[in-house]
Write a structure and sequence with these properties.
183 residues, mainly alpha, 7 helices
Length: 183
């Protein structure tokens, strides 16, 4: 009896090993950050209005706090939102590349390149410019890899790029650069 149970168990295990592995099937969602952008623009308009009122009352403390809040909103608008969009675009491109839809992946990488190019025009700061140039270079390397035939090389480069952009957001390259956005 025990022997028969062991045979049945062995057959079940071996039949499970013979199955083909399931291919990863990524889920795509239509994502955008327009709602966040709208809220940032509204907040900046409110900050400008409050700033105008504060100058009339000569409240220096209030002006300093409003200025700090405005700087944070500008950093969100001019750095974090574009970079978050780039990160999402790269992740989507990675998914399309995994599905062997190279044209769609290439379109998304080109979109990311456009966003990064506009990011470089935000301000003049040597450290920030270096960060943007490094990101542009990595995007160019992904495009070059995608133009070759090796899918695995392309996939590794795009994966590395996605991780790099994610680290840029997490570790705070913006803070490290000491940049200040237009007031």
């Amino acid at each position: 009896m025990l022997r028969n149970c062991l045979w049945v168990l062995l057959v079940v295990i071996l039949s499970g090993c013979g199955q083909e592995p399931q291919e990863w099937n990524p889920v795509f969602e239509a994502t955008n950050f327009d709602a966040i952008k709208t809220e940032v623009d509204r907040s900046l308009a409110l900050m400008d209005a409050a700033y105008g009122e504060a100058t009339q009352t000569d409240a220096i403390d209030m002006l300093e706090k409003i200025d700090q809040a405005r700087q944070r909103l500008l950093a969100l608008k001019d750095y974090y939102l574009p970079l978050t969009t780039v990160r999402q675009t790269i992740y989507d491109a990675e998914r399309y590349l995994k599905l062997d839809r190279r044209d769609k992946a290439r379109q998304l990488i080109e979109k990311a390149q456009g966003i990064v190019a506009s990011l470089g025009m935000v301000t003049q700061n040597a450290v920030f410019d270096k960060i943007v140039i490094e990101l542009k270079t990595m995007l160019d390397e992904v495009v070059a890899a995608m133009n070759r035939t090796s899918t695995s090389d392309s996939y590794q480069k795009i994966k590395l790029l996605g991780e790099h952009v994610n680290l840029m957001l997490v570790k705070g390259d913006l803070v490290l650069s000491g940049i200040e956005f237009e007031k």
